[in-house]
Design a protein that fits this description.
This protein has 18 helices and 22 strands. The strands form 4 sheets. Strands 6-3-7-8-9-10-11-16-15-14-12-13 form a 12-stranded mixed beta sheet, with helices on both faces. Helix 1 crosses helix 6 and helix 14 runs antiparallel to helix 15.
């Protein structure tokens, strides 16, 4: 039997298991919590917090405290120094270097064999299983899978213990059935210097028969543009005629969607979004032509949620399980995982769009918002506004960030945006107008503050030169991989850092 047929058969078997947690989500999560308590009870953390006697969610919630990274960091430092059985009952020797979008300091997230195989790899397999289910008779394994991953640095404490981007840890440990179709070669995929890496990646893949691309949209766009420059082709289908799937995640795809349609002008091209972070693989777009993701409930992750209206970090008291969530409420995500993260506040926010089964959209970050004047603008609002303004002015945006302009005795407030365009708008004034209009349409609080310019003036835009955000990321040691530009900040630190990097002539202000 051909390999593609065997692979498709294996993927379809998994669909039956996915259907089980679609139908019985509460039971699956309850059983999973029990298994986590059994494994975690054999760790030092589990012993301290009486995991062995926890039998119900209410007991778990009362005995185990909420944590943020600073709370778990002392445990992770000890793990990186070689101690074991601290947070989990099996060996922990891999550490995913998290993007840490809200500051310069990196986070190191533990990755165990259980989380790598039972969560991250499982997510990749499930994505393909759902794809085969939605698109029967596909033959993805006839061609190559172009994975735009991160870099891995060896942890100097041990030759067998290392840290790097999650994508790099995955690439270094891929099972054979993935490795035989992956491109580029490992020595290129794991390079640290991204300018050289993009160049070598482009040259090494232009003659491959690529069926799938997987990566963050912004870096994929950089690679795609370089491939077209080298080959002289007008679009990626001329380079890779069998390309049919782009698996993306990390940031909202909306600001990039129209540009990818030009890069790949094929109505049969498929796009599948994933929610895959250093801490775990949480969601997959399971329906065609949807912008919602299915919450993956059997990956060794127990989920809790905090309504953002009640969010107060680790002091939050209104914490609920999946059984009590409601539609269209903005929630902070809390996870307990088979990598030894216990009641860990992830830092992301989501809204449920369906409860049967549980589907959701990512709305932003618990610390990525602007609410200086009571406008409560979240990342979901910002990406929708950028996408609409781009569409109506024929612009293409690669990166952006925004922050408040504070009121003074003589000046009203505003929002200040720094935007890097791949293609500038036909009219910058119209871009600003549409951006403002869309924000007012999707956010009534922002609209109220903008009414008659009483509190907020129209947005102030800096259109910066190509490569500005890369230079900023490089200046804080975060260029490449899964590192993301914070879309919104409630202070001016990031925007001021970016503006300091550019000469006055580099910026077109509106």
């Amino acid at each position: 039997m051909p390999f593609n047929s065997i692979f498709a058969w294996m993927m379809k078997k998994r669909i039956h298991q996915i259907d089980l947690f679609r139908k019985y989500p509460l039971e699956v999560q309850e059983e999973l919590l029990g298994r986590l308590m059994i494994a975690g009870s054999k760790s030092m953390y589990g012993a301290i917090h009486d995991f062995s006697i926890i039998k119900t969610y209410d007991q778990f919630r009362s005995k185990v405290p909420l944590q943020e990274y600073e709370d778990v960091k002392p445990w992770i430092d000890r793990l990186m120094a070689g101690e074991q059985n601290l947070l989990w009952n099996t060996e922990t020797k891999w550490f995913a270097k998290s993007s840490g979008t809200m500051g310069a300091r990196s986070k190191f997230i533990p990755v165990t064999k259980e989380s790598l195989e039972g969560c991250h790899y499982k997510g990749g397999k499930d994505l393909l299983a759902m794809y085969y289910d939605n698109h029967p008779k596909r033959k993805l394994y006839k061609g190559k899978h172009l994975i735009i991953g991160g870099s891995a640095e060896i942890n100097h404490l041990s030759a067998d213990s290392y840290f790097g981007d999650l994508s790099a840890i995955i690439v270094k440990n891929l099972p054979w059935w993935c490795e035989i179709r992956r491109t580029p070669a490992k020595e290129i995929a794991l390079m640290t210097e991204w300018t050289e890496k993009i160049e070598k990646m482009a040259h090494s893949t232009i003659n491959e028969d690529v069926y799938i691309i997987a990566g963050v949209p912004s870096w994929t766009m950089v690679l795609a543009n370089r491939v077209l420059e080298i080959t002289g082709k007008s679009n990626l289908k001329e380079v890779w005629p069998n390309l049919e799937l782009f698996m993306h995640g990390g940031v909202s795809f909306e600001p990039y969607r129209d540009h990818f349609k030009k890069l790949i002008p094929d109505p049969s091209m498929n796009y599948v979004e994933t929610y895959n972070a250093s801490e775990g693989f949480f969601g997959i777009q399971d329906e065609v032509n949807s912008d919602e993701m299915l919450l993956m409930l059997d990956y060794g992750i127990f989920f809790e949620f905090i309504p953002m209206s009640d969010f107060n970090g680790t002091e939050s008291t209104n914490v609920i399980s999946i059984s009590d969530v409601e539609l269209d409420t903005n929630y902070a995500v809390v996870i307990s995982t088979n990598a030894g993260l216990w009641r860990y506040i992830l830092g992301d926010t989501i809204k449920f769009t369906s409860l049967h089964p549980f589907r959701f959209k990512i709305t932003g970050r618990t610390k990525s918002y602007i609410n200086t004047f009571g406008e409560e603008v979240i990342e979901e609002n910002a990406t929708a506004a950028i996408a609409e303004a781009s569409r109506r002015t024929n612009a293409v945006v690669r990166e952006f960030t925004a922050c408040p302009v504070y009121m003074s005795d003589t000046e009203k407030g505003a929002h200040e945006w720094c935007i890097e365009f791949v293609k500038f708008p036909d009219e910058m004034e119209r871009f600003v107008m549409v951006l403002d209009e869309k924000l007012r349409a999707v956010n009534s609080d922002y609209d109220a503050k903008r009414y008659n310019n009483l509190v907020l003036l129209e947005p102030k835009i800096h259109a910066v030169q190509k490569g500005t955000f890369d230079r900023w990321l490089e200046s804080i040691g975060k260029l490449g991989g899964q590192n993301k530009v914070p879309r919104l900040s409630n202070n001016r630190v990031i925007l001021e850092q970016i503006l300091q990097l550019i000469d006055q002539n580099d910026s077109v202000k509106s």
